[in-house]
Predict the structure.
Amino acid sequence: MTSPASPAPTAGSRPAPPVPPTPGRDAAGGGKGRPGPRPGRRLPLAAMARLVLRRLLAAVPVLAAVTLGVFAVAAASPFDPVNAYAGGDAVGASQQTLDQLRENLAVGGTFVEQWWTWLRSVAVGEFGHSQSLRQPVSQVIAERMVWSLVLCGTAFVLALVLGVVLGVLAARRPGGAVDRCVTPVAYLLEAAPPFWTGLLFMWLFAVQWGVLPAGGLTAPGEDTVTASGLLRHLALPALVLALSQLPWFLLYTRQGVADALHEDPVRAARARGLGERTVLLGHALRSGLLPVLTLIGTRVPELITGALLIETVFSWPGIASATVRSATALDFPLLAALTLLGALAVLAGNLLADLLYGLADPRVDHDRM
Amino acid sequence: MKVRMMRGAITALLVGALAGTACSAPGGNGDEGGAAGSGTGHSLVVGIATEPDTLSPLLGYGKDGNSKIFDGLLSRDVNLDLVPALATDLPEVSGDGLTWTYTLREDVTFSDGSPFTASDVVFTYETILDPGTNNPARDELAALDRVEAVDDHTVVFTLSHPYAPFAERTVLPIASEEAFGDQDVNTGPYNTAPVGTGPYTVSSWSRGERIVLEANPDHWGGAPAVERLTMAIVPDDDARATRLRAGELDAAVLPPRLAAGFADEPGRVVIHAESADFRAVTLPTGHPVTGDIAIRRALDIAVDREAIVEAVLDGAGAVAHGPVPTASPWFAEGTERPRDPGEAARILDEAGWEIGGDGIRERDGERAAFTLYYPSGDRLRQEHALAYVSDAREIGIDITAESASWEVIAPAMDDHAVLNGGGNPTDPDFDLYGLLHSELAGDGWNNMARYANPAVDEQLEIGRRTVVEEERREAYEAVQRELRDNPGYTFLTHIDHVYVMNDEWENVTTQLEPHDHGLGAGPWWNIEDWQPRS
């Protein structure tokens, strides 16, 4: 059970760790390292703004292609939206009624024309009507967006912070006690499907110990969302979602920091007599975090998929559960809008990762991304 | 308080969303925001598996009664007998059976305070019949030609042909014309925040999570003792059982296997509701094997229904001798058939179906073989199908069970058997006409077996057109006897719906339940009449 295999997906492709800035006087000045940017260095705001702008422009064709894909799938789908719409009432409905429904629900034209009509109405803020929810799509999104952001945001921050902290602790002494406890658990969590973890935690916390509610946004008898009630109801789904993402951050940090500890700049820092904390946090962590920053961007799609399962298991009234519903009910107007949101989230995640990467690694130029 | 609808740029959504921890639950109407948990009233939290698609009766919500938020002109008692609700009495029917006159109560108001009048009734029925209204159940009113308000409290329905069970359709909930205004019937706010006359009003509906109903203290039938009724939507059976055990739910619908775990718990009661919810195999008339009466009769008596009830339904169900459950007053005594594989083999031998080399029967080169589809993902129908296949094999009939989506099944129903489900416990016309009438063979989801039997067609027409109770009874008994002699469907089981609840209430009963059991079915069908046990 010593040093488990490296979580290798990007290990080969990431650039060599940078040399952390180590002003000469630190060595003489008794070990007070300064890990951050040099005092004189300012945030490259202009370059960052240019990057954001470029990415926004690049997003337009990507989003267009993704939504066109949804309409193509809708057109090619062998499933009948009328049956999905009618549900149980379809049994006993005459052909005439079903045909009338089809006519009422159908959008004319080829899928490209449908997509173009949809795109033009989206451009002016009109998302159409959700067939399965019998509501305007914009209302569906407005009602649910907040709760998904609260859940995913909390889980993501939790996974990132816990993952990095535990990863550093484990990397400090590979094969040590912390490493032996944390790393196998991380592999276990990585392998466990989130809905399984969800049901397990629900059983433990809600049934066996009765300390946390098993689902929903508020207690079943209550209407209004209070801060304390929200925290109690958020705890389990956010924890489970965080646990599904945490192993990635943990293992990447552990590997990155452990590798960095053996690299020349870190050895040099040690040789100059810097304190262990400074070496670990200021030098090894800074260089070991680079792959983790890339990871932030690539975990966003996984986070959304995880939320699909978690929101369903915990009856969380967010976007993800609406997505599941729109997909199973063949509600293409809603599905198109939600796919657009999902694609936007992924692009935003990648942009965030690049911005952070550029800030963390002085050799990387935002203008060249 | 309400999460405002945000149009425009998606970025605005993203930014605006960050501010929202003090918002009300989504779908909340905000009007009752502070009332949560206040007062000394009784409340009940019920776990259900599916939620309605809409709460608007104009799109089909509550069409079979017990809608809670609305009342119909009539409603049904525990025995499914019609009783007056918004009408003062049962309707007066003209001699030709075409004109149905209802006199309305004068003391009824909608929950927004506006009075209930005949124009609301006319509005509701006319909107449903409008082709632009996406109401898939519109055909249930196919006999209705027009509806008129004679005065503020008298409504006359005129039918295009005599239709004896028409009164059964008038349990349909009445919407408020004034509250509806001029909104879009298919997507407007009346779908989520409707105004009705019923014993409850909608406090909030958070889709996929729960519907919260508040007692309507001004209800014409008296204020309900259960002041707050929450329908928690938990699709997963295990999650529902877990939340019931954790005390978050006071009652829930559960599969028999999970309900059994609560049987010995003090303070809980497990309720088995009998139903008209049947499972049956369609035997297409056009297929050379399944269209043969000998094959049909042999399959009908070879299948071990008792074993299916025990093994597949865990005992929570009843053997089905036809679409009408034995628990229904319309069941024809004497149409029960005992299982008799020996007799089945004899029938097949006599008809010339000889056992071939592979153990499967043949006649004139035609193998006794066909395909039986069941909808994929439906475990219950799958197990029914497999049991049927194995019983058929014993008498030398080779059935291949295959799972498929309805999109695959629908075009194949002409010559492939399907494991079908359905059932309406009220008037026999509702099930039997659509299942058996040859004119409806293959029309939408009607008559999936393409059953064609002139004697049955004739009796179905008599049952629908005559208003004399005794003649109707004879007609439907004749239909059931015909179906025994030429079983174009093999009816297998009627499935009990099982509920677990805290044993704290008086007047808890169940009706004979339909195939679709949403909000209106279950022990809480009449929750407005419950009293706390002292």
Chain B has three domains: 3-50+207-273+504-532, 57-180, 278-495.
